[in-house]
Amino acid sequence: MKKFIWIPFLLICSALCAQENSFQSEWKFGANAGLTFSRVRFNPHIPQNPLMQGTIGVTARYISEKHFGVQVELNYAQRGWDEKTDTVINLNEYSRSLSYLELPIMTHIYFNLGKRARMVFNLGPQIGYNIGEEVLKKRIFTDPDNVPNHFNEKIQRKFDYGIIFGTGLEIRTGIGFFILEGRYSFGLSDIFNNTRSDEFQASPNLVLGTKLTYLFN
Questions:
Q1: How far apart are the C-alpha atoms of 190 and 121, rounded to whole Å?
Q2: N- or C-end of the chain: fewer Cβ atoms within 10 A?
Q3: Phi, psi of 80 (to 5 degrees)
Q4: In the chain, how many domains are there?
């Protein structure tokens, strides 16, 4: 009789253990590419339109617990700004591209939407370093005294850091995982010096983008 009393407890324990063991940690590696739409949050304010450019990089992801993991990337990303020097006729007459090597280190969160689909969220810090810049468009001034200082001045702070947030949809197939994601990067550092005697009191990067990532085992 005592043996039969233990049977329900053994069945419950077996069920709980099966649920616990159903999760398997996973390592994934792959590549990513996408578009960036960037501005610089100048103070004093400069009217701008988003500057569309690109980003490409490699991705590593480790999921250690159910719904949680970490995702690290090394990306080449283009930022910059496209400003209106004549707001009366709405002309975009100055734009500059900034090239960065970026290292986002993000907490990865996911929720299953079925056997092959997941909703994913990525959030964490990002550091970057400027490796180049290019003036794409520049208005010609007849009076040199009217030329804004930053038109002829390279960025003064190459190291960049900020917060990045992304959300998207992951499709899991037999040949790999495909993730389409929207990203927002909020810069916490300035690209120009920001003392009282400088032209700008603040100049952090702001980037909105879309990215497609492919991961494999």
A1: 27
A2: N
A3: 135, -160
A4: 1
**Tokens standing for residue 75:** 């990306």
Question: Which phi and psi (to 5°) does residue 69 adopt?
Answer: -170, -165
What are the C-alpha distances in Å from 173 to residues 110, 111, 133, 161, 176?
Answer: 16, 17, 39, 35, 5
Q: What domain range includes position 102?
A: 24-216
For residue 4, being part of any structural domain is answered with no
Residue 46 domain-assigned (yes or no): yes
In a domain, 17, yes or no: no
pLDDT in tens, 132-146: 999 998 877 667 777
Residue 3 lies in a domain: no
Exposure string for 131-152, b = 16+ CB within 10 A, e = fewer = eebeeeeeeeeeeeeeeeebee
Distance CA(187)–CA(172), nearest Å, equals 32
Per the CB < 8 A criterion, the answer to whether 203 and 41 are in contact is yes
H or E element: which one contains 193? none
Q: Which residues of the chain have pLDDT under 50?
A: 2, 4-6, 8-20, 89-90
For the whole model, what pTM was predicted? 0.82
Q: Rounded to 5, what percent of the chain is helix, strand, coil?
A: 10, 65, 25
